[in-house]
Amino acid sequence: MTEKQHAMGFFERYLTLWVGLCIGAGILLGVYAPEFAKALDGMSVNVNGAPVVSIPIAICLFFMMYPIMVKIDFAEVVKAGKSIKPVTLTLIVNWTIKPFTMYAIAYLFLGMLFQQLIGADAVDLVKMPFGLDLTVGSQYGSGMVVLHEGVKMLAVPLWRSYLAGCILLGVAPCTAMVLVWGYLAKGNAGHTLVMVAINSLVMLVLYGVIGGFLLGVGQLPVPWEALLLSISVYVALPLFAGYFSRKWIVAHKGLGWFERKFLHILTPITIVALLLTLVLLFSFKGEVIIQNPLTILWIVIPLALQTILIFFITYIAAKYWGFSYENAAPSALIGASNHFEVAIATAVMLFGLSSGAALATVVGVLIEVPLMLVLVGFCKRTQNWFLG
To answer: Quick check: is 128 in a domain?
Structure first.
């Protein structure tokens, strides 16, 4: 890929600023026009009278995911064997270490150190698991079934709802932004692309399995049907759409037109869809944030520590496994970053647009750009570690 394609564009470079502005806009919308966001969220696919998929959010999230998938050349996946050690390390870190360290760190901070600050008795109303019909007053995990505006909901401890969002981030490795981080760190672009493709395929199988397991350990609702539906809608659908549309466009327009024109058009669409989603999410959490503005900080701390921990685990392992710098840097950056698009989509589908879980996944977006840029800078300053 060319430098122009990899370099951070206007939207990507100031993503943290746009996220901050959308947080403010969403909070103001929630305070001064709460019915607008509720009306949009009311446009949903219902099952047994309960909203399962918010149509506006589903549309936004598809346009967040599709451009990621369409960039992937799956023909490169078959060549991954040439760099088997980097591929192996990345898979081990992403699927056998990262989800569990995320759970442990989030539980330590949100469930123990910060629980009183969040509010030991504070509760969050989340969706009932898809297909489950319990009577009001029943216990399910750590939650109790309540009737809210005529719909059965689960009242769970607020800190556990935040924990759920962290879990969904921890089992969602590698985003399209990794292509940018790898380029800025002067890493192996081919390896980065291959791992994006492999992680996308692995997510089809392991995201629901590991995510469901950890949610169960955390005494949170484990909506298996909704997890499978989420993977189908937000991973499989854009994955196949990206594969077939890329194949058709390249065949009819050529690879050069695809890379120079088509991808250039898609990039701002992706960011705009993300930002619109954030406005809706924060419009529902405005009151909570205004009452306790430190809420964001309590979530940021475990997420930031997890990112740094996974980066150094991978980076140091790569050094002692004899990697070149060009493979070590993207391997560590892939492990450290999160597929926040999928995490947001899943949190909204499983727990609801107004849930603490959805808020926690959005915080992942807030810290992604500045923290990853710091780690990119660290990589560039330590290239000499790998010269020998």
So the answer is: no
pTM of the predicted protein model: 0.78
- Using CA atoms, how far residue 253 sits from 226, 248, 267, 277, in Å, is 38, 8, 19, 32
E-state strands within the chain: 44-47, 50-54, 123-127, 139-140, 143-148, 151-157
What pLDDT score was predicted for residue 80?
A: 56
175 and 340 Cβ atoms separated by less than 8 Å? yes
Q: What is the pLDDT of residue 5?
A: 44
Please name the residue ranges forming H helices in 71-144.
84-92, 98-108, 115-118
Q: Name the band, by pLDDT with cuts 50, 70 and 90, for residue 51.
A: low
Which has the closest alpha carbon to 168: 340, 371, 23?
Answer: 340
What domain range includes position 321?
Answer: 3-122+158-386
CATH number of the domain where residue 254 is located: 1.20.1530.20
Residue 63 placed within a domain: yes
Domain count, the chain: 1
